[in-house]
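Appendix B, example 12.
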Amino acid sequence: MGKASSAKKVARAARAGGRVSSGQPRSLLFPGVLALVIVLGVALVVYAREDRRNEDLGGTPQLGDHIHQALGINVCGEWLTDVPEFETVVGIHSHGDGVIHVHPTSQLGVGANATLGRYMKNVRDDAGLEFTLTDSKLEYMGETWEEGKTDCEGVDDPQLRVAYWSNVQTTDDPPVIRTGDFGGIRLDEDGAGITIFFGDPDADIPKPPKADRLAELGALDTGGTTTTTAAEGEDATTTTAAESAEAEGDATTTTEAPAGDDGAGG
């Protein structure tokens, strides 16, 4: 009986040694290290994001910059009406001249914020016009064209593409063609051109209609000058862009409607 009693005591002692009393304090080392790792991880993510944001906002354009890019929308071989003139506190706007005028006046229009998507948002918010472009659908001024749903005469499967020229006015190089992520196109190169094209997927995309006048139209904002090349034996003339536009307006003739005709159809 003595040996059995001793064995039982040893067994009880062994079991007791594997338990921790409810009153004994637990180690806080592991939870503390885990919490520290989490805090450091969050801090690194925030720092990296802020650093990337500062880098993006530090790119072209900046407040006070003037960038001009020609823009045209071609659907089934026809050019659509240019975006009408509108102003915005962001500074990315149009004068109804087929040109995107990028003159940032807030951080919403600087660096990586200056995109085609930002311009379209400004058209919607400040001009009150629908202008939305996804990878497969264009909505513009009350009309919609969508791949797989909208037909073009003589085209089996019309597709939506966007062409971009870095120097649209003078280059003969082919454009960079995009088939998606159109809103992310950066508006950071002065003299560039963009054509939004819905039609034959194999067709060459034409330059925007105002490509050959981009420098002149851009100079209207900055008071710049344009030079007219004269014929042989004559002197070339240099005028301000505003004078050029005024002269063009003076040369325009209008036909007066007959009395009683208000010009409305019906």
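Residues 67-209 form one domain. The mean pLDDT is 80.
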